[in-house]
């Protein structure tokens, strides 16, 4: 990698920024901070002019793949284009300068935004109420499962198991375990959907809920959802939907209408907040009427008195599972999602899902025949190919195909997930890609299929055109070295 670390660009005395001299009397630091907490030596910080800092980070960002550079078909992650207006609204001083401890009367706009966003999300998924507190999808799962536990406790029942389908995201069983449930895996059938007989055989009075992703991680709609709903509810269990794939449903159908009791949303996927790199995210949770009393506090309430509207925060919910986050959740992500929903309107929201589905099926049509498709479509917003043929016939693994895509200018799809597909390549084009971009991506995939047959070494030695070549990924996660000379 050619780019030096910022410490190597440092030259003594170079400055990027000079703070203005204070226009108030200054006092020694010791008068503010106890001496034992003060640094004794100067921090070894890089000294670099602003122009070089900007260029350094632009060069680094150019080396990286990102969604503003080209298509990022990372299945299940919905790496779609995030409209820049979202950043503008979330950067408005009226929002960024707020403090969560300000009196309610001074944050009426923020409370209104939260109240309206919760209502919009509730409408989209057909849920009676929504909490915006959880900070990610997995955190939403945790919130939802705590709600499930509280619901059963409130009925004096102690159920110990959660059912999770084998195609589910790994966070589902992890969240269940965190709450203390035993997870029982339900098998997928030959079509890639929930195996109804297996589900039936695992439902008994110890089952608190079934967690289901719809459409599932193969991009397939669970078309037996009505039967699943009846079986689960007849058993006295709840039905949880992992709504990370909501971008395939919006404006077309609603989890609440399918009988789901709880759903989490990923604002940082479906509702266009940038993600990757650790956040911030937001994983609101919607619930049906009977679960509303268990939602986290505080809740934003709207009061209409004598022609004026006022919003307050209420913690007066004796059955609540409690707080899931400091203050109110990741507010800037909420502003982005609110902007996105208001900009699109009901019609636009539906077109998002329609286009996500059309794009996935268009791309699938171009790739079928050259890659195996273990579970046939038509699909919803994503699909899962298998690199089995390339591996068996040419010893080219899915990992090699993913690396070669980087050479051709694309981020790789999600690979080796879901676990029920061997050599999985899970592709989610998203609705924001044009037909021309989909065609370019399809050409790259077809070129790799040709290379695997005619020049397998080319694929196995990829990537060659990237700033770093093939990394030892196991070593990278076991021996993290973030390259700071001062460390
Ligand atoms: C289907 C599904 N469920 C849950 C999650 C967890 O969401 P998060 O990464 O925001 O915790 C993901 C994330 O990739 C997902 O794809």
TrEMBL record:
PANTHER family: GLYCINE DEHYDROGENASE (DECARBOXYLATING), MITOCHONDRIAL, GLYCINE DEHYDROGENASE, DECARBOXYLATING. The glycine cleavage system catalyzes the degradation of glycine. The P protein binds the alpha-amino group of glycine through its pyridoxal phosphate cofactor; CO(2) is released and the remaining methylamine moiety is then transferred to the lipoamide cofactor of the H protein. The lineage of its organism: Bacteria, Pseudomonadati, Chlorobiota, Chlorobiia, Chlorobiales. Pfam families: Aminotran_5, GcvP2_C. Residues 353-455 form the Glycine dehydrogenase C-terminal domain. GO terms for molecular function: glycine dehydrogenase (decarboxylating) activity. Residues 1-11 have a biased composition (Basic and acidic residues). It is an enzyme of class 1 (oxidoreductase). Signal peptide: none annotated. It comes from Prosthecochloris ethylica. Transmembrane segments: none annotated. Residues 1-28 are annotated as: Disordered. SUPFAM superfamilies: PLP-dependent transferases. It catalyses: N(6)-[(R)-lipoyl]-L-lysyl-[glycine-cleavage complex H protein] + glycine + H(+) = N(6)-[(R)-S(8)-aminomethyldihydrolipoyl]-L-lysyl-[glycine-cleavage complex H protein] + CO2. Residues 178-276 form the Aminotransferase class V domain. Its cofactor is pyridoxal 5'-phosphate. Its EC number is 1.4.4.2. CDD domains: GDC-P (cd00613). The modification N6-(pyridoxal phosphate)lysine is found at residue 269. This is Probable glycine dehydrogenase (decarboxylating) subunit 2. NCBIfam families: PRK04366.1. Keywords: Oxidoreductase, Pyridoxal phosphate.
